[in-house]
Each structure stands twice: as C-alpha cells, then as structure tokens.
C-alpha cells in the first residue's frame, strides 16, 4: 500500500521524466537474465538467483568435455529424497572452478570423492551445487531453497573467486532488485522502475538498494566487490551457525590460480588476500578445517607435475587437478576423524577483529568479462556503447579510492603478471571463433544447435524471443550447420564458417 501511494504521489513528475526518457530513446531497466539460455556454459535464467542451470544431458562444457545437469539445476545424478536412512551426504558449493568447468561429469572432484568413499565401504553421496559465477550470496539462497532439505552431513564451502571479483554491482543488490520485481507486478511499468531506485536507497528494514539503470544516469564507472569483504564474512558466519544448529559439519576450500602456483611476486598483495585471511579467521573461530588448494597443488608440483597439468586455464582445474583436490579433501577429513568427528561449527557468531579490504585496482576489462552480470540487462546497441564508454572513462580516471584510503605508493593492486599457463590460455582463446546468430520470426521459444561436419554439437542455445547473440566455436570446426527449431516444430538449417561467421535463421511469419 505504501509503495502504491508513493507511486500515485509521484505520478505527475515521473510521467514527465518518462516522456523525456522515451523521447531520447532511453529505457529504465531492472536486472533479469537477458542472455541466450544454455549457451556457452549451460547458464540459464533463474527466478530467484538471476541465473542458474537447466536440466540437460551431454551439454558442451569447454575443453571438449560435456556435463549433465539434474532436475534441481546442479551437476550430476539426481539425489534421493528423502535421504536414505544411514547414508552420509556431502554437499559442496562454489563457482565454475568447483562446478567443474572444462571436465566431464566423472572427472569432477565431488565424483572422485564419492567413488573413493564408496570404495572404502561408506554409504555416501556427494552433491555438487557449484554454478558458474555464483557467490556466497547466491549459495545462501541455494541452501534456503534446496540445500537444507537435502539433509547434508557435511558442507564443503568453496565460494571465493566470484565473490572477490571487482564488478559494477553488489550481488545482494541485484538479488534484492530481482525480489522487488517479482513481488511487484507493476515493475514492468517505467514509472515503478524510475521510483524503485529512490525507494530502495533508504529502506530501514532491508538496507541495500534496488538496482535500476537507465541511460539517463549512465552505466556505473566505479569498481566494487561483488560481495564486500564484511558481507562475505557475515554470510559465511551465519551459514556456519545455521549448519551447527542442524548438526551439519563444514570444511572450507581455499582456491588457487596460476598466479599463486607461479614464482613469488613482489609488490602489493593480490586482491583476494583479504578474503583468504577472512576464510582462515572464520575457520579458526568455528574450529573447522581449511583445505588450501595452492599448497596441495604445489605439493604435486614438487613431485614433478606441471601447473598446466593441474589447471587448464588460469583457475579451472583439469581432471588431474580435480583428482588431486579430491585426495586432499579426503586426507583432511581422515586426519580430522570425520565422520566420527562431525566437524560441527560453533553456534556462536564470529567475535574476532574485523578485517580491512584492499583499495580498488585500476579498471580493466576483467570486470564483467566472463561475469554473468553483463547478461542481466537487456541492452540495445546504444546501451552497449554507453557501457563501453563508462569503462573507458573509468580507465582514464585511474584507480579509485576505497573508503577514503589512497592506493598504496608502490602502485595499485592490479592483475598478476602472466605465467606460462596464461600463455596457454591465450592460445586456447585463439582456438575459437565467434559465430553471430540472428533468430527471427517463428514461434518462441527456440532451440538452436550448431553442428560440425561430423554432426557433433559444438554449440547450443535456447531463446525465449527472437534475438541476436554469438557463440564461441572451436577452430577445429571451421564450417558448421546452424539449426533452429521453434515451438511449432518449424526448422531452419543454414551453413556458416570462419570465412562467413554469421547465420540468419528466419522462420518466416
């Protein structure tokens, strides 16, 4: 009722503002998934978490691997519900590094763990709820919506890389905006969109803000953490307390990357350092183990394993990396006498000193490059130009200050120098080409598949409306067939290739 009265009170002024925006061709936007579904990483729209994964079998998963997604939207077989009596259940969180981007279903660390535990006589299953780009903000929702009902006995908490990323918005604000839109059907109205940002700024009940962007305000130029350090700590702390109250144990995974596996580097600390320290502080308070993946992989390297055998790019483990990780987790659990020692966290909140974050780095195109957040606004070509302009403006400004503190004298916290594994990544990136696809007319939704000369699927997407998008195609498939099927079963098949990297799929009236 309060919101409706506010809308009515603001109607005359807002109507003028709307008219002016529309006259300039500018649109207020609320975040929602606007990318092609199930394309380039299995990502699809999700009603509460903005993006997720849809049930699928044998979908392309990078590096020639395929993935199967169950009906819950997670990797692997569907868990039994209710959990069979006497069975132990382990549930892992995390982003693409622990979801298993670039490896097959049987090569993910959670599958290795399950097979090892079953081989030792344990009745156990291990559920992987990792999703590319997820932070602890989204995994709190995963636990509320699905996780607790799965009755886990142990949580493996692995949210860090996406959380500490510098991007344009806080994840919690995006999620809050999504809840606002879902709870208010009128949010399709430009009026409500214009008012929502003002209404959300000073909400004493929830805090945070409602994200409403329009070209009149400009795309954000500053870089902020997707999950600020203090929120990262408090959300993990609350999750661990909730686990303890349910009799559920926990263990942390501290991830690694090619920078950490390389030689020692001088200069300011990397941007993830405070989050690593926060993980150690929470683990010490809650008396739970931390599996340091850097230490584990370096031990393997001391035995002669190359870093490129453990990571296929700068942060995603290979099949060997997942196996080494699985062995390390099992060793840590055994050393802690799990499951006899249930590894229950403390029910008391963290009472240690607050940790300070680092200053922002100079803007680089890492913010949003690979982040699903770029798919959350249905951008026109003019909007995209505004985003690019904002990024250039931020680059010209240099490193912004953080909480009033200057950037250290020895330089901003930038990106680490490239190690050998980065050179391999660049080679992999050169090993793909971009196929621009336009789907027009017909009856949505649409299923799009890209087939190589042997009929293998090398790309796919699902669209809810006619659209233009692009897919990365392996250079090993220089010529392809692009097939679209609409709701009525009508089908169009066109050819494309490196020499002609576009496909117009027009299904007619």
Compute the CA-based radius of gyration: 24 Å
Quick check: average pLDDT?
81
Task: Characterize the overall form.
Answer: globular
The largest sheet has its strands arranged as 6-5-7-10-11
- Please, what is the CATH homologous superfamily of one domain? SGNH hydrolase
* Uncertain spans: 20-24, 200-206, 363-369, 399-430
- N-C termini distance: 44 Å
Helix content: 25-40%
Q: DSSP strand (E) fraction?
A: 15-25%
Class from secondary-structure proportions: alpha/beta
Tell me the major beta sheet: 5 strands, parallel
How would the blueprint of this fold be written?
Elements: H1 2-23, E1 43-46, E2 50-53, E3 56-60, E4 66-69, E5 88-92, H2 96-99, H3 109-119, E6 124-128, H4 136-147, E7 154-157, E8 166-167, H5 171-183, H6 190-201, E9 224-225, H7 229-245, E10 249-254, H8 258-261, H9 273-286, E11 290-292, H10 293-302, H11 307-310, H12 319-335, H13 381-397, H14 420-430, E12 432-440, E13 446-451, E14 457-463, E15 467-474, E16 479-485, E17 491-497, E18 502-506
Parallel strand pairs: 5-6, 5-7, 7-10, 10-11, 12-18
Antiparallel strand pairs: 1-2, 3-4, 8-9, 12-15, 13-14, 13-16, 16-17
Helix pairs in contact: 1-6, 3-12, 7-9, 10-12
């Amino acid at each position: 009722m309060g919101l409706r009265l506010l809308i009515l009170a603001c109607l005359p002024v807002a109507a003028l503002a709307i008219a002016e925006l529309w006259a300039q061709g500018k649109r207020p936007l609320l975040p929602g998934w606007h990318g092609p579904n199930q394309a380039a990483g299995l990502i699809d729209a999700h009603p509460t978490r903005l993006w997720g994964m849809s049930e699928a079998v044998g979908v392309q998963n990078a590096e020639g691997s395929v993935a199967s997604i169950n009906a819950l939207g997670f990797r692997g077989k569907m868990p039994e519900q209710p959990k069979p009596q006497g069975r132990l259940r382990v549930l892992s969180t995390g982003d693409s590094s622990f979801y298993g981007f670039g490896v097959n279903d049987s090569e993910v660390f959670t599958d290795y763990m399950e097979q090892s535990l079953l081989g030792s006589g344990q009745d156990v299953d291990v559920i992987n709820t990792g999703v590319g780009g997820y932070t602890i903000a989204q995994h709190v929702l995963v636990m509320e919506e699905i996780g607790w009902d799965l009755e886990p006995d142990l949580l493996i908490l692995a949210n860090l890389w996406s959380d500490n990323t510098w991007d344009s918005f806080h994840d919690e604000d995006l999620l809050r905006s999504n809840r606002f839109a879902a709870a208010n059907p009128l949010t399709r109205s430009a009026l409500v969109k214009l008012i929502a940002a003002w209404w959300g700024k000073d909400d004493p009940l929830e805090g945070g803000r409602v994200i409403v962007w329009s070209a009149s305000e400009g795309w954000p130029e500053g870089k902020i953490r997707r999950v600020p350090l203090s929120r990262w700590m408090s959300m993990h702390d609350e999750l661990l307390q909730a686990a303890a109250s349910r009799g559920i144990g926990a263990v942390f995974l501290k991830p690694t990357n090619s920078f950490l596996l390389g030689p020692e580097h001088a200069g300011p600390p990397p941007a993830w350092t405070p989050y690593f320290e926060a993980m150690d502080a929470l683990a010490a308070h809650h008396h739970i183990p931390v599996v340091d993946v850097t230490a584990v992989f370096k031990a393997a390297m001391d035995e002669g394993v190359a870093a490129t055998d453990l990571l296929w790019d700068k942060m995603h483990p290979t099949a060997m990396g997942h196996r080494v990780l699985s062995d390390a987790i099992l060793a840590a659990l055994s050393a802690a006498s799990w499951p006899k020692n249930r590894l229950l966290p403390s029910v008391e909140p963290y009472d240690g000193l607050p940790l300070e974050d680092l200053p922002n780095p100079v803007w680089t195109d890492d913010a949003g490059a690979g982040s699903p957040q770029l798919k959350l606004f249905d951008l026109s070509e003019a909007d995209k130009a505004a985003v690019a302009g904002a990024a250039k403006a931020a680059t010209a400004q240099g490193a912004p200050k953080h909480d009033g503190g200057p950037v250290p004298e020895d330089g901003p916290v930038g990106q680490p120098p490239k190690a050998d594994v980065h050179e391999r990544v660049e080679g992999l990136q050169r090993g793909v080409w971009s196929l621009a696809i336009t789907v027009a007319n017909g009856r949505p939704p649409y299923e799009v598949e890209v087939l190589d000369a042997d009929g293998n699927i090398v790309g796919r997407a699902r669209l809810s409306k006619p659209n233009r998008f692009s897919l990365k195609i392996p250079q090993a498939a220089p010529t392809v067939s692009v097939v679209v099927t609409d709701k009525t079963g009508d089908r169009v098949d066109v050819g494309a290739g490196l020499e002609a990297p576009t496909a117009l799929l027009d299904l007619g009236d």
